[in-house]
Amino acid sequence: MTLERQIIFKTKGVKQTRSLGRKLGKLFQKGYVILLNGDLGAGKTAFTQGIGEALKVESQVNSPTFVLMSVHEGIIPLYHADLYRLTNATDVEDLDLVAQSSEGVLVIEWPERGIEVLPKDHVFLDFKTLEIEDERSITVTVVGEKYGEMAKRLESYG
Ligand SMILES: Nc1ncnc2c1ncn2[C@@H]1O[C@H](COP(=O)(O)OP(=O)(O)OP(=O)(O)O)[C@@H](O)[C@H]1O
Ligand SMILES: [Mg+2]
Predict the structure, then answer these.
(1) Of the candidates 93, 91, 95, 70, which has an alpha carbon nearest to the alpha carbon of residue 80?
(2) I need a surface site. Which of 1, 105, 109, 141 has the fewest CB within 10 A?
(3) Residue with CA at minimum distance from ligand 1 atom 31
(4) Which atom of ligand 1 is nearest to the CA of 134?
(5) How many other CB atoms are there within 10 angstroms of residue 28's CB atom?
(6) Within a 10 A sphere around the Cβ of 65, how many other Cβ atoms?
(7) In angstroms, what CA-CA distances link 74 with 17, 34, 55, 57, 100?
(8) What domains can be seen in the chain, in order of their start residue?
(9) Strand partners of residue 109
(10) What is the position in ligand 1's atom list of the atom closest to the CA of 36?
(11) Best mutation site among 10, 14, 130 for ligand 1, i.e. most ligand atoms within 8 A of its Cβ?
(12) So what's the pLDDT on residue 58?
């Protein structure tokens, strides 16, 4: 049976989303795959900037839409991919993101472009815009044994 745990956070304003990214980013390790799901402007890149802070990356984290994946050197490297422009899973498969990022943390925006070719074990974050301005709900689902330790520590944040 696949180990699965879920926890819901709420943020108000971009700063809170960034600091949640920083907080969770401290739990991320080499080989982790983090999938960020949610509409345009939901806060996926803002969250990734927080991960970048946690990993003490030197370069600026922004939307990698034009390069599909950018690499930021840090405590461990941050691989930041944005699949928005891709239309089918074969294109995603051809990018071979997982093999390329094995030495670092892989963060993917718009994973639904190729969810079937991405690892079944992953940390999935679902960003939702709420009725109240600047509020977001961020549901974190941790799937797989590999992330068991992280899931335990995450629960103590809840
Ligand atoms: N609670 C919040 N968390 C994150 N961003 C917020 C929040 N409230 C307002 N915002 C605004 O929403 C926008 C989020 O932009 P961001 O680039 O992070 O979205 P995204 O999910 O990466 O979008 P895209 O799919 O286009 O890449 C920013 O302009 C930010 O200021
Ligand atoms: Mg983005």
Answers:
(1) 70
(2) 1
(3) 14
(4) 8
(5) 23
(6) 15
(7) 20, 17, 5, 4, 16
(8) 4-155 (3.40.50.300)
(9) 36, 82
(10) 21
(11) 14
(12) 92
